[in-house]
Amino acid sequence: xxxxxxxxxxxxxxxxxxxxxxxxxxxxxxxxxxxxxxxxxxxxxxxxxxxxxxxxxxxxxxxxxxxxxxxxxxxxxxxxxxxxxxxxxxxxxxxxxxxxxxxxxxxxxxxxxxxxxxxxxxxxxxxxxxxxxxxxxxxxxxxxxxxxxxxxxxxxxxxxxxxxxxxxxxxxxxxxxxxxxxxxxxxxxx
Length: 190
Hints:
Blueprint: H1 2-29, H2 34-38, E1 43-48, H3 54-70, E2 75-81, H4 88-97, E3 103-106, H5 111-116, E4 120-121, E5 123-128, E6 133-138, E7 144-146, E8 149-150, H6 158-167, E9 182-183
Parallel strand pairs: 1-2, 2-3
Antiparallel strand pairs: 1-5, 4-9, 5-6, 7-8
């Protein structure tokens, strides 16, 4: 009798495995992506940052506001620190000091930086995982004219405009702006 039970479990497990792969195969052929099945965000807003950059620090208090306004099940936010000078303890202090509610991580090997061809900090990339394309990249707004020269009045809220258009399912009119800030150090020695 014990042998029969083991044999039935084995047949049951085999059927489950066959059903799982059958469902996965039909899912892959239906045009549905794994992101849709797992309910992962379709869009990620990547902020490339440097903890000791004055311009990044100037924008930092607003990052939480942008998160509060635009974070949905479809849109997530991630802070990326590509320079090796941004140590985990400094990143943790930055997160705590500015009360940043989303994940902050390092990119010491520049995998994301190279993927998006990021050059400056702060620089933002709004990436659509389903389309596998950058929907918007560049500055957060037009606050800076150049390093050390700040506008009195912000006239163009570029990132907010892009996210508003995404939420309204409209085309993004300005897909790229030029950021102003500190350079990503591609010559870091690990």
